[in-house]
Amino acid sequence: xxxxxxxxNKGANGSSTVDKKVKVVFVLGGPGSGKGTQCxxxxxxxxxxxxxxxxxxxxxxKSGSENGTMIQNMIKEGKIVPSEVTIALLQRAIHxxxxxxxxxxxxxxxxxxxxxxxxxxxxxxxxxxxxxxSEEEMESRLLSRNQGREDDNIDTIRKRFNVYMESxxxxxxxxxxxxxxxxxxxxxxxxEVFEEVKAVFAPSDxxxxx
Length: 210
Ligand code: ADP
Ligand code: C5P
Ligand code: MG
Known about the structure:
Elements: E1 23-29, H1 35-46, E2 49-52, H2 53-62, H3 68-76, H4 83-96, E3 101-105, H5 111-121, E4 127-132, H6 135-143, H7 154-177, E5 181-185, H8 190-201, H9 203-209
Parallel strand pairs: 1-3, 1-4, 2-3, 4-5
The chain binds adenosine-5'-diphosphate, cytidine-5'-monophosphate (C5P) and magnesium ion.
């Protein structure tokens, strides 16, 4: 699939694999930090399209794809699916959507995700929204999420936390070093978290609202 980029969207290799000019915000944070919950609100208020990497992978399992069993096994173990699989799903979703601004939730999850996405799509995030939440709070949210997810059990949750600490936090640190991280205190109730989020997307509105 050809994605042609405006020069402002070109990555280090200058390649172009997205055929429109798009704006991407990465939404990162631990499992259960509230990424999906807040993305739904951002969509409503600011007109982004929400792409959750985890949701795309779960849809791929349901579609009966040849990668389905591999993805299912990785998710059950809390492991990160090879980048080429996840990136192909993200690229397709961007390509199929008319919108030009996307929230990419739960991606990049490790350095390999980050580097491969940059290389393949040439896209760099406008900024990174980082939902910072204590492990204790995230665990309690995941255990009461009740969406029938095979990975919301205590054994898999522990594995996901380890992967988050070892592989995902370094990605957030990388973007911090580039001055791209907008940190949000995600431990608070949903409405309070969204007030902080709103201030990132519409700083002037937030000032008026106070
Ligand atoms: P993530 O996408 O980061 O894994 P979710 O948005 O699915 O997280 O939220 C995990 C669970 O926690 C859901 O059941 C959701 O309703 C709940 N939740 C989300 N944000 C909050 C919050 N700020 N306070 C309390 N519960 C929350
Ligand atoms: O973000 P979410 O909690 O929905 O992700 C669920 C699982 O999907 C992760 O624990 C991981 O197994 C898989 N995943 C992945 N690569 C991503 C995002 C999610 O392998 N970039
Ligand atoms: Mg989610």
